[in-house]
Amino acid sequence: MALELCAAVVLLAAWLSLVHRRLEAQIYLYATQSAAIAGIAFLVSILYATPLLAVTGGLIVGLNVVVIPWLLRRILRDLRIPPEINMLVSVRMSALAGLGCLLLSVAVIGPLTPLAEIPAAGLLPIAVTVVLIGLFTTATRRKAFSQVLGILGMENGVFLAGIALTYGLGLLLELGIAANLFVLAIVSRLFLHRMKDTFDTVDADVLRSLEG
Amino acid sequence: MTPLELVVGVLLLLGEFAVVLLLSPLLMGVIRRVKAHSQRRVGSPLLQPYRELRKLIAKDSLYAESASFVTRGAPWISFAALLCAVPFLPWFFLPSPLGFAGDLIVVVGLLALSRFMTALAALDAGSTFGGMGSTRDMWIGALAEPTFLLVIFAWGAPAGSTQASVIVAYGISLGAAYLSPALLIASAAFFLVLLAETGRLPVDNPATHLELTMVHEAMVLEYSGRDLALIEWGKAVKFTLLAGLFVSVLVPWGIAQSWGVVALVLGLVLLLVKLLGTSWAIGQFETRVAKWRLFRLADLSTLAAALALGSIVLTYLVGVGP
Amino acid sequence: MIYPTAPEALLEAMLAAMLSGVITGLLGRADSRRMARVSFAFSVLGCALMAALALGILLDGMSFSLAAGVPGGTSASPLLAVSFSSDPLSGLFLFLLGFVGGAISVASLGYVDRYVHERPATLASFFALFLATMALVVLAGTVFAFLLAWEAMTLVSYFLVVHEHSAWEVRRAGLTYLVMSHAAAAAILVSMILLSIGTGTTSFAQMATLAGGLSPLVRDCVFLAAVIGFGTKAGLVPFHIWLPEAHPSAPSNVSALMSGVMIKIGVFGVLRIVFQVLGVGPDWWGFLLLALGGLSAIVGVLNAIAQHDLKRLLAFHSVENIGIIFMGLGAALVFLSLGSSVLAALALLAAVLHTLNHGLFKALLFLGAGAVVGATGTRDMEKMGGVVRAMPGVALGFLVGAMAISALPPFNGFVSEWLLFQAFFGAFATGSLSTEIAFTVAAATLALASGLAAYCFVKAFGVTFLARPRSSAAAEVSEDAPGSMRGGMALLAGACLAIGVVPSLFLGLFEGTLRELTGAGLPSYSPWAWLSSLPRPAPGSPDAGGTIAFGIVAVLLAVGIVAAWGFRRIGAKAPAESVPMWDCGMDAPSARMEYTASGYAQPMLRVFSAFYRPQQHSALTELGGARPGVLAKTQEFETEVEYPLVERGYNPLADGFFSLARRVGRLQSGGIHAYLAYMILTLVVLLIAVRFFGGVGP
Lengths: 212, 322, 698
Known about the structure:
- The complex is a heterotrimer.
- Chain B has eleven helices and one strand; from the N terminus they run ααβααααααααα.
- By secondary structure, chain B is an all-alpha fold.
- Chain C is mainly alpha-helical.
- In chain C, helix 7 packs across helix 10, helix 13 runs antiparallel to helix 18 and helix 14 runs antiparallel to helix 16.
- The longest helix of chain C is centred in the middle third of the chain and has 36 residues.
């Protein structure tokens, strides 16, 4: 039951992040989603007696729920990024795109669900949906900052898929991804900072005009 | 059915009506109180809505000169339509004596009837505000209706029925396994429907007195006295109906499965707790959101519909229960 | 056998009454109101006989079969065989025709008397003929009889549409109608010829037993041709463009008959050819009908919202409701192809019940609109308003119709839509994801359509009847519609309420049709107005679908209304007082400040702007003075709504035809030699054709 609850929260957070216009809320949604995934990790580690996963869960709480959102909020504040997202696709279309992602993953991954180690709660299709939604977000946002949020969402999805398929990937891999992400966050922060300093903007459309 | 069962059944039916009628102003009071509290205000007393009703009942009704029989009839019909939905929803015991007589689709129909009458009455006097409120309210209702239907399908599909009592009984029988992602997402969609249908933030601001932004208040500008009392009470009853449906489906446990005294009392107490909890949550929610621009509500309803449809997809995928 | 007479006698009496109606209408002068009344009285009689015959067929097991017409037709040329026979399906539509047509005829007595100023007797005569031809279409037992009656029906209705032909728009609408009808007839002809050739018979009953042996390709072609042909007559999107032109142009009693009954003949055709003759098909047939139906429902209602011509608004609602009916038909076909006849019967019941229901409330609405349009002399809602005070009877009737069409309990529209929702919900018992998703989307579409319909009818009723008069014409309306008109409306409104409260009393009418077309009977119901949707094996639960007791809902509603009324009245101090409307501190709000029909529709235009593509024009003439742009003398604002289907779909098509016609027209050089040459050429071609393809000679 708790597993289902967490899975639902993960999906819901991804979906809402598609339609919410405020960056601040997006960060909260990301933190909530990460917390739910950590919850799933803890639950699975208890239910299937895989203590390693609990460690990963703790890591997620530390990184994805606390550190990264804090970092993102600081970037938001320091760079004075406008609080509203500039979307390429209307909110209505985005909401329907979420549905499309879900349908696609159910149609493609649904038959594979019994193969997953943890078939309960449809974790696998939900994970794939989250990845797809993240991809969609990344593709349809103009600002580099909100694109980073999309990538973070994708990473959450990949992680969830990992749990569903193998009780969690090996701890090493986990650490690898987490570290990767951490680096990504820092790099993006620095990068954004530099870009903002240099070009006075982090709008990807404006940046493109600088090409060549 | 023995005569005794018949008597008990009728009494319980009346009990359902009484609970909804008497409790609904309290829920309004709770929401206001919670909002005031979280905004660091003292706020009005918890029982203020009852006093307002009493005040309105004591006053005379006035009608605009240009008003026809529609204005005079609409409040009762609208109120009656809402009351009519009471026995079709699960409250604190199952099976409800008249539960078989209507399913959730009927509830949608009755809500639509109630809305239709008030919207019509708003046009009756010919005031600009009335027209404004009327078109907005019907607009919101028309956009919320498909989502409501989708949610009914999502809730009903695992139980194989659109009957609220069957869905709830099914939930109780499954235990914790009932709480699937599909159910939760459908319920999230229903929460949005609830906000839209009952005119809460971010759809409509129940506390506003600026005519141009009002929806519901603009519609009832011409009403006074007991008619207004019926309308305001009806609004509270509508909230109670939808909030009751929401918690009963989401957390069905505790609803009495038999007509035993202990179970009934327990069910009643738990119902009270659940409803107060929902009201508290709505109050908290309303503190945290601003009213949306009217035309962004279409985004909200699209999101709700997409969520509801998504939950049906999940229903199919995950299956329900072990 | 309860009936004292044979069905043939009833049929002949009915036709005789109709014929008398036709003749009396033509006997006197064309503008004789007395003759018009006599003629309509004959129509009433004919319709009553028709309804009696229908009830005999449906409930009493009457049946008849008459081979008539062309002498020796059956033996000499089987193609020309003409026969009229009865079965439950024809009985059902005969009942619809008899009851709704009868009520409209009653209303016509007063309507034509007061509101029709041109040639009332001619109108009455054609009206009777129209009724008779529709009855013959429904009763036709062979292809030839069907096509004959169908063409007659189309032509007669064309003359009725262009009755007030002095106006240019009316003639244009009539032309559109005629062209579309003939395209439809061609499609129907194709489907029937394919069937006749394939099965070697022209009798529908024999076709039904033989059509299973046709090749899938032929069956698909027959299906598509039938859907195009009958869909055009029914007003299915994208073949609906004639409907919003023709219905408003006709006199209102004719609009009522066309919208209430004639477009249902298109539904009848689909039932006859697709369900009865072709039978079970591949599942895409059903999904196609479902999709077209859903499209029609949404397109119809969205267009209706944008109208401020009252009758055009109602016409677009016919498109919407035909869409709902076709959604039911589509669902039934899908269930049939999945082998679930019980669910198919439920969906089909919803469709045919909605057919009857729509006949009732749409006729009611058109009659109400006719009275208001007649009294105010305009179809523009922006010039109405406040009519409720002078015409309370008509207003009440229209209100009942508006609530019924918006699918509000306790009226009949709600019953059929409830059944349709239950049928869609039945998809969860089939276990196929695509069906589930499709039907869930269909249910949401239906819910959206009925929500929008409610929106539209609050607007229609509110702007037309309520508030203060928006023009002097509306202010001058002083009396209610004639008694016969209110009587006809009361009949229809009563039927709407009766079916809404005790639908089980009427379900017997449908049983034979359901058994014949799906093999399964009615859902279980008990006579005291309660209906359970289905016995259905549900996962994990033995319980079934949804149950509803419409009667109990209605009683609860009535008790609630009485209780609320009591609460309102008991102990109230003084009788309610009338005061000026609250004016927000300004003085004397005028009728110009009321919400208009266009204003009411504006939120929808905003949200569905992708559909409407509203074009806004505004013009400002300034008062001049020191600061330009500040003081406006006049300001105009106009919103236009586009009809992409007509502008980008039909108009290019029509242009293409015209240019083709011009090219063909060049053949008509006018010289005698050219024509002689054509004749010789034709002869040569014919001879060659006979030699090589005719199978003549050695």
